[in-house]
Amino acid sequence: GTVEQLLVAPLSPFQIMFPKVIAMTAVILVGLSFSLFAIAAPLFHVPMRGSLVLFYCVTALYVFTNAGLGLFAATIARNVAQMGLLAILMVVPLILVSGTWTPPEAMPVWMRIGTYVSPMRHYIDVSYGILFKGAGLDLLWDSVAAIAVLGGAVFGFGVWRFRRQFG
Q1: For residue range 64-74, what is the model confidence (pLDDT) as tens digits?
Q2: How does pLDDT run across 145-165, given as a tens digit for each residue?
Q3: How far is C-alpha 37 from the chain's CA centre?
Q4: Are 75 and 162 in contact (CB under 8 A)?
């Protein structure tokens, strides 16, 4: 019933989806703050050398990108069970090629090229650069731009599919 109520409201698909992304981003940034300032720094003495403002901005951009992936998957799935399976099919390959478990340098060439499509790979590069090395946007602009391009494309495609499906 909720989707039907939204569809009869005088709102565009973007106006329906963007507040959800903002709310999710706020919750994730609060959780990130708790992780950084209540766990990582005091308990594990993790040094934070770079700009936290830049880190929070890039994290918000990364959340936007993941919201676009979720929106796209939701337009394909017909129910919650399908959404769960589709999320596994999308997220696991993105994690595997992100460089989290295996460095891209240790991957075959064809897979190393595929790592550039994973927003997580770029986010990991930016996170390490900001938090551990103190790097700024002047050094990390290419990874931030990649997250922005991937996020814009995926979110735009998800909104387009949503509009086409329900509009």
Answers
A1: 999 988 888 88
A2: 999 999 999 988 888 887 787
A3: 22
A4: yes
